[in-house]
Amino acid sequence: NAGVMQNPRHLVRRRGQEARLRCSPMKGHSHVYWYRQLPEEGLKFMVYLQKENIIDESGMPKERFSAEFPKEGPSILRIQQVVRGDSAAYFCASSSEGGSYEQYFGPGTRLTVT
Amino acid sequence: GNSVTQMEGPVTLSEEAFLTINCTYTATGYPSLFWYVQYPGEGLQLLLKATKADDKGSNKGFEATYRKETTSFHLEKGSVQVSDSAVYFCALSDRAAGNKLTFGGGTRVLVKP
Question: Is A46 exposed, middle or buried (0-12, 13-18, 19+ CB in 10 A)?
Answer without folding.
Answer: buried
